[in-house]
Design goal:
104 residues, mainly alpha, elongated, 5 helices
C-alpha cells in the first residue's frame, strides 16, 4: 500500500483494477457477474476490518468511540460477509440466478 491508496472506496478499487483483473478471470472461466459480486463482498470485508478499515475510521470520527469498540460491534456483520463468501464458492448459482434470468 503506497500513499493514500487505502482511502479509496470499494467501487473505485473495482473500477481501477477491472481492466487488469477481468481478462484474467475470463481466461480462468469465471462468470464476470459472479466475480463482480465476489469482489464487492471481499472489498466490503476489507473496509470493516481493523486496523485500516475505512468505514471504521469514519465511524470513529462520527461517534468518538474507540476503534476496538467499533470493531467489536462490526464483528457480527463481518461474520455474515464471510458466510456470504463461503456461499458464493459453494453455490455460485445463488448469486447469478437473477442476472441470468434477466439476460436470457
Amino acid at each position: 500500500m503506497t500513499g493514500n491508496d487505502w482511502l479509496l472506496d470499494g467501487v473505485s478499487i473495482l473500477v481501477q483494477s477491472s481492466a487488469v483483473v477481468l481478462p484474467m478471470t475470463d481466461a480462468a472461466g469465471n462468470d464476470p457477474v459472479w466475480f463482480g459480486i465476489y469482489a464487492m463482498i471481499v472489498i466490503q470485508c476489507a473496509q470493516i476490518t481493523p486496523p485500516v478499515g475505512f468505514n471504521l475510521i469514519v465511524l470513529k470520527s462520527m461517534t468518538g468511540r474507540g476503534i476496538g469498540e467499533i470493531a467489536a460491534a462490526v464483528f457480527p456483520f463481518l461474520c455474515l460477509l464471510l458466510f456470504a463468501i463461503v456461499l458464493i464458492f459453494l453455490f455460485p448459482g445463488i448469486f447469478t440466478f437473477l442476472p441470468d434470468l434477466m439476460l436470457n
